[in-house]
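2024-03-11 09:14:02 DEBUG pipeline.ingest accepted 1 chain
2024-03-11 09:14:02 DEBUG pipeline.ingest length=285
2024-03-11 09:14:03 DEBUG pipeline.predict start
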Amino acid sequence: MDACNDCGDEIQIRGLRCQAHCGVGAEERKQSQDLRIDAALELVRSGDFLRRTIADTVDYTVVADMIFKILNESEFHLIENIAQLVCMEILAKFSQIWRVTVTVRKKPTHWINFVENFTAKTSLRRFTGAIGLGTNLGENLQKNLGDARTEIEKIPHTRIIQISSIHRTAPLLLWNQPDFLNQCLLIETWLHPEEFLRHTQKIERAMGRIKSFPNHPRVMDIDLLLFDNFIVKNLHLTLPHPSLEERRFLIEELSEFGIKIWPKDEGVMKQKCEPLSVDEAQLKI
């Protein structure tokens, strides 16, 4: 879950000479505008210190061809739009890249004697997060978890990397309610945590969650547990999640991703937390 990439390599493409139909006005967009584009491609850290083949890195000629193709296929109102789209397309295509920064420079005709150029710069990067799912209402709790996973995969610029096993757990703070099914997901996203949270809250509401009182039964609860090295504490979100060390299922499920959480109180390990067998996972619960 460490966001730093100190040992990574960076590929830079500087001064790529391009043309695009770009401008605020329709007449301006009819004419091809000369642009200069820089792209800084930061690579995921390599397990082997040396990158020996093209498969270990990114072919910068392919990236350059890709930028030309993007500019040839669309019209743009703003050079900011160009920088954003190029960043998004590069991250989508090259899994070896964890952050990309694109700078677009344009020399406006009417300002030719006053400024060297106008510049827009955009940076996008991948984040890795761990999220927890919990459900104890509905005819089929297993289906609830599956539906939540399906909707999370639909969040823009997000994919599920790993899925933990499922545990049946007893409620801790409000005992007069059914047992839960819980599961953790490891996700990759380009969204910042608060933006990602808005999407998960929307999924909860769409699945029928109604917030009435703390620790109430729910069709679906989606918690952001860890989000790279973010530390957040506000009215909407706390990262890392404050219950990480208080829920046995979180400790066990996150360990399946190689994330070690040490409970402050060993008594949490006595929490009822039963892994579902393969057969149980197929049944209505």
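2024-03-11 09:14:41 DEBUG pipeline.report Confidence is low (pLDDT under 50) at residues 2-6, 281-285.
2024-03-11 09:14:41 DEBUG pipeline.predict end
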